[in-house]
Amino acid sequence: MADERAVTIEQFGLGDRRIREFALLPWRLYRDDSLWTPPLNMDLVGNRLLGTKGLLTAEHPYHRQATVTHFLARRDGRAVGRVSAAVDERFNDFYEDRFGFFGFFEVEEDYDAAAALLDAARDWLATQGARIMRGPGDYTNATHMRQAVLVDGFDTPPTVELTHNPPFYGEFLERWGLAKVKDYHAYLIDLAKMPERLGHVADGVRKRYPNITTRQVDMKRFTEEVRLIISIYNEAWRENWGYLPITEGEADALAESLRPIVDPGLVRFAFVDGEDAAVLGAFPDPNWALLPKRKWYGDGDPVRLMRLLRVRRHIPRTRLMFFGIRPAFRRMGIDALLFDETLTHANERGYTTTEASMLLEDNEMILRASASMGGERYKTWRIYERPLGDAAPVAGEITEPLPPAAGEE
């Protein structure tokens, strides 16, 4: 519930000492939530020893294209919420518009604090010339970034790169004046109950199109393979809502983050007459091992990484993270081939479930395919937006002026 003490807002940029407090705040907010599973801290604040460039550091490739700032809400000196604001020039150039994004949204069950944070993000975005405020997510709602707020399916843990939050987040965002712009769904598929007709369809495709060949990812050439994935992605997803081409820098960062958990048999390519046509990528879910245990020895990155490395070949669940067919090769049945081969490998390795997720609510083809494989919709995430012309404060009073943004880019 709201506190009678005033909410104060602090603004700061990349490189400020408060970035670490910003990154770690959810560990306190979710201390009683047994399902919450955060990314590794080094994915956010980096790790000099390992050479990782966290998303909240100026060295991350994202910041070559964007201007960002960050806000913490405090009551009596105690942080009670956070939010970021970003203007992604590459996204805006691609869509020929002026979007401003809010992200990293986390807050106690305190509407006044949430409103003060959203007010601050809105006001800053307006000064940057943004026409629409959209979010939440990380910095931006591009399809390949961690994004959206969970609005259904709070009783199960998130899989890798997906968000988890209390039900009141959506309520707060709508109360403040944001409106739904798009939903994403997740389907849970029991691999032991996959319909037999999938194999029959795949056999028919093999007979009809002998010029289609497939193979799994080559781990000896993993960086090059990731570039091939991105090449297919950047054509296959081009018409999807929220799509933004992935850059080589982002591809390299993705390769390093995925390498430790790749099961090569779950990442497969299809070729037609030798030309790359499609890719399917499923991954053992590292969140199964990274779920905080709240033990006396803590849940720091080294502890969670050792746990992941110890059990990574025994993780029972997978997430289907990407699947795309280049437009010239659609309606040939390539999807059935790749799904059938991946299912065969998954059954041989002992995986029990897979989650097909972040499926656009209006992508009927993919939703029908997920349902036809026995999938059941079990989670929904939502993206919100609001025009920035109505910039009058809605709720929540900032009782102290914003301090200058330290290191703001």
Description of the molecule:
Strand 4 (99-107), helix 4 (111-127) and strand 5 form a beta-alpha-beta unit. The protein has 12 helices and 13 strands. With 409 residues, it is α+β, with helices and mostly antiparallel strands. The model is unreliable at 391-409 (pLDDT under 50). It has helices at 18-29, 41-45, 89-95, 111-127, 168-176, 197-208, 222-236, 248-258, 287-290, 301-311, 334-349, 364-372; strands at 7-12, 66-75, 78-88, 99-107, 132-135, 149-152, 179-190, 212-216, 267-272, 275-284, 317-325, 353-360, 376-387. Helix 6 packs across helix 11 and helix 7 (222-236) crosses helix 8. The chain is globular, with a radius of gyration of 22 Å.
Total number of helices:
12
- Shape verdict: globular
* CA gyration radius, whole angstroms: 22 Å
| Element pattern in H and E | EHHEEHEHEEHEHEHHEEHHEHEHE
Rounded mean pLDDT score: 90
Which stretches are poorly predicted, pLDDT < 50 over at least 5 residues? 391-409
Helix/strand class: alpha+beta
Give the termini separation. 35 Å
Beta fraction? 25-35%
Helix content: 25-40%
Please summarize the sheet with the most strands.
13 strands, mixed
The strand count comes to 13
Give the arrangement of secondary structure elements.
Layout: E1 7-12, H1 18-29, H2 41-45, E2 66-75, E3 78-88, H3 89-95, E4 99-107, H4 111-127, E5 132-135, E6 149-152, H5 168-176, E7 179-190, H6 197-208, E8 212-216, H7 222-236, H8 248-258, E9 267-272, E10 275-284, H9 287-290, H10 301-311, E11 317-325, H11 334-349, E12 353-360, H12 364-372, E13 376-387
Parallel strand pairs: 4-5, 11-12
Antiparallel strand pairs: 1-2, 2-3, 3-4, 5-13, 6-13, 7-12, 7-13, 8-9, 9-10, 10-11
Helix pairs in contact: 6-11, 7-8
